[in-house]
Specification:
Layout (H helix, E strand, L loop, with lengths): L2 H5 L3 H7 L25 H9 L13 H14 L3 E5 L2 H10 L7 E5 L4 H13 L3 E5 L4 H7 L4 E7 L11 H11 L2 E5 L4 H4 L9 E5 L1 H5 L7 E5 L1 H15 L5 H33 L4 E5 L9 H7 L6 E6 L2 H11 L4 E2 L9 E3 L11 H7 L5 E5 L5 H14 L1
Parallel strand pairs: 2-3, 2-4, 4-5, 5-6, 10-11
Antiparallel strand pairs: 1-7, 6-7, 8-9, 9-12, 11-12
Helix pairs in contact: 2-4, 2-12, 4-12, 5-6, 14-16
């Protein structure tokens, strides 16, 4: 099965068959290779493997048959030449950023980032002599103004966590290309089904596979995708020697998740669109932000670069934190959790959880206040979810 063949498949087919590697037993489901290392018939064969003269696996810290299948299947879905799977989404983000720069380099990042991503950009990278600047990612003039002679990397997520801002990836890539910098995009909220950053000009894409790709609350995982040259020259040695590897068991679980990803995301997105419209009409709700609505601040960009809305909704209750807490506590079907992209609907209060470490001013800049809530729509019946939300709003 060639890469060229898999790239001609539709996503649903690639999610079931892409990258499959069968043993001599011809198993239907992908095999789980729970092994740390591999043996060689001769010392000469081991030498040739380590020299790269023969193909094969050496050590599961940086290459394993089950993990390799997951990486190849993600490449088939994303349209990437190569990938490396990691133990978590944050391992993917950290590796993609840190392998790309060195002391004295400069990184520009959109300020609307997940709290841990901001910590990597604002706190960790400067410790190693890497300069960083945060900008309003929706304003191209801020990206341009922040450029310095030593700027090497642009980083953004779109849609953003939690307020679902959408950044013009093609426009950011154009600025980066003009100075020879690279663009890293965290594409978790859009999923690889509803936005293709590489096609829009991004150079590197990262995912927390924990989210929609597993999507059933079972395991952690992450993945970095790019062209083979960048991975060989930047990521490979970093990955090999620092060891942020994905376990074979988790890779197998994620392979199973990919098989149902298109069906799950389709239903979750349809339900989210319906629920967003319902919330927008409720008198207790001050604002609804959803990428599938015409009143989204970046609706024109969404129409150009996304093929679907989102499984996430951001909304604000007029009563602030007290109302947000009362509402969340009254929900029966929707569970309180900081996760997202799950089969179960989950609600998060960003100001006190995912973005609690930001200053009040930083949260205000991002549009996060006490009444802001992020809801991840699951696979429950949309009518039941609407009923649960209405009852909670009434009681709150």
């Amino acid at each position: 099965m060639t890469n060229e063949t898999t790239r001609n498949w539709k996503p649903a087919t690639a999610m079931v068959h892409g990258g499959t590697l069968r043993s001599q037993f011809g198993e239907t489901s992908e095999a789980m290779y729970l092994t740390q290392g591999f043996v060689y018939e001769t010392a000469e064969a081991a030498e040739a493997r380590f020299k790269g003269e023969t193909q094969g696996f050496i050590y599961s810290r940086y290459a394993n048959p089950t993990v390799d299948m997951f990486e190849k299947r993600m490449c088939a879905l994303e349209g990437a030449e190569d990938a490396r799977a990691t133990a978590s989404g944050m391992a993917a983000v950290s590796a993609a950023l840190l392998c790309s720069v060195k002391a004295g380099d400069h990184v520009i990042a959109a300020r609307a980032l997940f709290g841990s991503c901001r910590w990597v950009v604002e706190t960790l990278m400067p410790k190693y002599g890497i300069e960083t600047t945060l900008v309003d990612g929706t304003k191209m003039e801020e990206w341009e103004k922040a450029v310095r002679p030593n700027t090497k990397l642009f980083f953004l997520e779109s849609p953003t966590n939690p307020t679902l801002e959408v950044i013009d990836i093609a426009a950011v890539a154009k600025i980066a290309n003009s100075i020879g910098a690279r663009v890293v995009v965290d594409n978790v909220f859009a999923t690889p089904l509803q936005q293709k950053p590489l096609e829009l000009g991004a150079h590197v894409v990262v995912y927390s596979a924990t989210k929609h790709i597993d999507g059933q609350g079972r395991c952690l995982g992450g993945v970095i995708l790019s062209d083979k040259k960048w991975i060989d020259e930047n990521l490979h040695d970093y990955f090999r020697h620092t060891g942020p590897s994905l376990s074979p068991f988790n890779a197998w679980t994620l392979l199973k998740g990919l098989e149902t990803l298109p069906i799950r995301v389709k239903q979750q997105t349809e339900s989210a669109g319906r629920i967003a419209g319902h919330l927008a009409c409720h008198p207790a709700v001050g604002r609804v932000i959803y990428p599938g609505r015409n009143d989204h601040p970046q609706a024109d960009i969404i129409a150009r670069q996304m093929t679907g809305g989102s499984t996430l909704i951001c909304f604000e209750l007029k009563g602030g934190k007290n109302a947000a807490f009362r509402f969340s506590n009254e929900l029966e079907i929707v569970k309180i959790s900081n996760n997202l992209g799950d089969a179960k609907s989950l609600i998060t209060h960003p100001a006190t959880t995912t973005h609690k470490n930001l200053s009040d001013d930083a949260r205000a800049e991002l549009g996060i206040d006490g009444g802001t809530l992020r809801i991840s729509i699951g696979l429950e019946d949309a009518d039941d979810l609407i009923g649960d939300i209405d009852r909670a709003l009434e009681k709150a």
